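Q: Hi! First time doing this. I have a protein sequence and I read that you can turn it into a structure. Is that right? Here it is:
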Amino acid sequence: NSSSGFQDHNLSQFIPFEIEKEIGNLYLSSGELLKEFWSCFPPVTLELEQKLIKMYDILKRFSKSKIKPYEDRVVRDLAPLSPQLFSHLNLLFDTAFRRFSNWSDKKGKK
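A: Yes, that's right. Below is the predicted 3D structure, encoded as structure tokens:
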């Protein structure tokens, strides 16, 4: 969709380069962690289950220690733009957390 790209381009004009670069770095790191997390599905072996639990814990810690503090700072510094900057990244993590929770609930019922 070309209009979406145009809007994103306009948004980037208002974001300082340092923040844009840091968000890019957060996306790169998040992408690697999420890729490892999703590679554990379906967890059909004990080894995959253990890796899944470990990756879930890593994602939780990364979200809490890296993304949330940076998001809070950006919210403070770029208030009107900040929700748009982190909504996709938060959605990626929320989806992974929800999937883990669903798996964990099903596993507990067996």
